Fold:
Amino acid sequence: MASGIMNIKFKTILTILFFPVTVNAIVITGSGSTVSQILFVSGSTIATSGSLSISTAATAALTVTPNLFLNLDNGNIGIKTASPLTSLDVVGVISTTGTAVFPTVGTRTQMYYQATGGRFITYDYSASAYRPTFVEGNPLNLNTASGGNFQLGLGGTPISIISTGTFAPVGFEFTNVDSTAASSGDFVRIGNMVYFDFQIEIDPTSAGGANTSIELSLPVASNFTLNSDARGSCAATSAQYGPAVYDDATDDRLIVQFSSIVTANTTFRCNARYVIK
Structure:
């Protein structure tokens, strides 16, 4: 007979440990505890010695649902999936008491939860640097428990990413104004940006192009540094010239300013936006 090496390649999925099985049970009974009470096998015959006796029990079927699979063709392992697409393909929740290591950047990259700072971090130990972490979805839903806030940046202040509300502007620092009345406005906050609109009625004291202005409170407080930190526009119901909206960086308020052409009560419908600083 010729000798040699036979190379057999199996293209199949191997189910490990868990498979349907039929059990033929052998029941052994006996009495006493002497050494002569033994069971031995001679060829295909099972014999007894002493006071032991053997009987065959009824056939019982034991079926277990396969959970662990090995693809012998590519080495992929599947847990609760018979068609593993990656080296380890798991259908279900993965938990660990240690750290999950993802060596996709450098020689040692980890993605882990830092309990002290309450953060989920991707860190490259080979480069001693944090790595960008991308979360994609369509749609992508981000939720916090009990109405919690999100934090932008390691040293940032926790904020609500998107919030909406209403506000009633309060007037300050009147110039050439007899009376004023503001109605409620609406605002939307997206991160550190605030977009809002409001309506205000102003009675100018004098006409003839007199400079007229009023300062108003903000829907969300900000610490302005420039008079251009807030910008906006207004539409007037009466013939007033050039209504403009900007901020007072000293008092951290919004300014509505125009040149008064008439002294009639004028309604201004305004919108503005600014960055929270």
Q: What stands out?
A: The longest strand covers residues 177-190. The chain is about 0% helix and 50% strand.
